[in-house]
């Protein structure tokens, strides 16, 4: 069987057409609001909305372009995403010159090796390279500098950065390697399903929060997350997951259950990553994506959702 063909399934094209139609409607609404409130040139909500819509157009087109090239395109795309996310993470937490060699190992050894193991479908090495070998080797590299200052804290940051930005994100293209009976040649739809549901949850939480949000969940970690936004966004995204069951090997109930789980993981992932940012006194990981901050701001929920989704699908459907 070939779980990762070179062509994009028709179902994926239909989903992308739906996304483009939604973005077109959202863009039209944003332009109407901008013209209606033209006198209020400093309205941050409208400006942020239009910036986010523009960025979503770009990101969706990039995803479609990568998926069009199948397995190789997806691998290359997420390797670059991991590189950008790792760079943002290390830029924020990196403080000592003595950790330079450990940083080099993350960028130029662990990152390409991890994605190479995904590419050649070496499951055992893909799953243990970072949690086992990197977990042991990175502190060894750091200790060779002879700098004992804050050693435990420094090595924990490096290990955490490698785990989140390389290991967790590599589970997205790894979905292409799964061999599901009766689903051969359609694995790209698993990526489309997971990314669409998790990102829709983020967007819908933002929309529900702006429209109905009053009570904040954890203002010290993420001031923009509200009870109404979280419940409304995750509920709608779960319904979306159930509605997308036809592009997956799941039943509607199974799709809804998996959708709810990955949305919850995405939500908690956002909280964790926000806690890290707040501990360093910054709002965003970077400024790479207009309206969204850095790359890591955009994929933080996927970092937590992807490994759970991958291993559940592998355990129950392969």
Would you write up a description of this structure?
There is one protein chain. The protein has 318 residues and is mostly helical. 73% of the residues lie in helices and 0% in strands. It is built from eleven helices and no strands. The protein has helices at residues 10-36, 44-68, 70-93, 100-119, 123-143, 151-168, 171-174, 188-212, 227-243, 252-279, 295-317. It is globular. The chain starts with 9 loop residues before the first helix and ends with a helix. 41% of the residues are buried. This is Phosphatidate cytidylyltransferase. Keywords: Membrane, Nucleotidyltransferase, Transferase, Transmembrane, Transmembrane helix. GO terms for molecular function: nucleotidyltransferase activity. The chain crosses the membrane at residues 12-33, 53-86, 98-117, 123-146, 158-176, 188-207, 227-247, 253-276. It holds the Pfam family CTP_transf_1.
List keywords for this structure.
318 residues, mainly alpha, transferase, nucleotidyltransferase
Query: How would you sum up the major sheet?
Result: none
Beta-strand residue percentage: under 5%
What proportion of the residues is helical, as a percent range?
over 70%
What average pLDDT do the residues reach?
87
User: What's the helix-strand series?
Assistant: HHHHHHHHHHH
What is the number of helices?
11
Oligomer: single chain
Low-confidence stretches: none
Span from first to last CA?
13 Å
Radius of gyration: 20 Å
Instruction: Specify the overall morphology.
Output: globular
Number of strands: 0
What is the SS-derived class?
A: mainly alpha
Protein name: Phosphatidate cytidylyltransferase
Transmembrane segments: 12-33, 53-86, 98-117, 123-146, 158-176, 188-207, 227-247, 253-276
Pfam families: CTP_transf_1
GO molecular function: nucleotidyltransferase activity
């Amino acid at each position: 069987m070939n779980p990762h063909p070179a062509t994009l399934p028709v179902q994926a094209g239909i989903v992308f057409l739906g996304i483009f139609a939604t973005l077109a409607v959202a863009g039209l609404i944003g332009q109407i609001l901008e013209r209606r409130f033209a006198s209020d040139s400093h309205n941050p909500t409208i400006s942020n909305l239009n910036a986010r819509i523009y960025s979503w157009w770009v990101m969706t087109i990039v995803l479609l372009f990568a998926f069009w090239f199948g397995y190789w395109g997806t691998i290359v795309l997420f390797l670059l995403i991991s590189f950008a996310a790792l760079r943002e993470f290390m830029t924020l937490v990196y403080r000592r010159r003595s950790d330079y060699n450990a940083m080099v190992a993350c960028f130029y050894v662990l990152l390409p090796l991890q994605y190479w193991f995904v590419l050649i479908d070496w499951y055992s090495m893909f799953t243990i390279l970072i949690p086992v070998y990197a977990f042991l080797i990175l502190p060894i590299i750091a200790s060779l500098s002879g700098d004992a200052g804050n050693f435990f804290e420094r090595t924990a940051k490096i290990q955490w950065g490698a785990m989140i930005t390389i290991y967790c994100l590599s589970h997205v293209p790894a979905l292409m390697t799964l061999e599901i009976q009766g689903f051969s040649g359609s694995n790209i739809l698993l990526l489309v399903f997971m990314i669409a549901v998790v990102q829709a949850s983020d967007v819908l939480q933002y929309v529900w929060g702006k429209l109905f949000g009053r009570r904040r969940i954890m203002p010290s970690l993420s001031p923009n997350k509200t009870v109404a936004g979280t419940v409304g966004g995750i509920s709608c995204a779960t319904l979306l997951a159930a509605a997308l069951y036809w592009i997956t090997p799941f039943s509607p109930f199974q799709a809804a259950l998996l959708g709810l789980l990955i949305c919850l993981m995405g939500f908690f992932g956002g909280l964790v990553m926000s806690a890290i940012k707040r501990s360093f006194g910054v709002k965003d990981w970077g400024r790479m994506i207009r309206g969204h901050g850095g790359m890591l701001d955009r994929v933080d929920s996927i970092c937590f959702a992807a490994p759970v989704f991958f291993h559940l699908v592998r355990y129950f459907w392969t």
